[in-house]
Specification:
Elements (H helix, E strand, L loop, with lengths): L2 E6 L4 H12 L8 E4 L11 H14 L4 E6 L3 H7 L7 E3 L3 H11 L3 E5 L5 H13 L6 H9 L7
Parallel strand pairs: 1-2, 1-3, 3-5, 4-5
Helix pairs in contact: 2-3, 4-5
Length: 153
Amino acid sequence: MPRLFIASDHRGFTEKQRLLSVLNDSNVKESYEIIDLGPTTLKPEDDFNDAAINVARKVRENAGSRGILICGSAHGISIQANRFKGIRAICGYTPELVHLGRLHNDANVLCLSSDFMDDATIDSAVSMFLSCRFLPEERYIRRNARLDEDNIY
């Protein structure tokens, strides 16, 4: 069974706890093993980097898995996660953007903003992220492969 790894920093902690509750009460657990990578308690001095690194490593190590990261803006965690080869992290501010990220980029990590997204939008974005499939057209496969090229600049 594929895994869904979830983590946050202090600004995303409350939203992460809420989202875990929603996911565990839904049919998502029939398709994914849901794994909370922390934190398990609010840590006001933590860094978003640690959450992003933990999720990116786990997604990369577990074929077919996906990750969700939550911080204040979603920017820092997406930048950190995208430093890992094989990770395609997107900021999913709307379900429509998430749809495109899955369809065209085969995004495997969804980054969410606790400061700029409400609960309903987050739930819709997560639903889209977990239900939408990649469109394996040659142009998307080629473009996504280029994301992992070394020394291109």
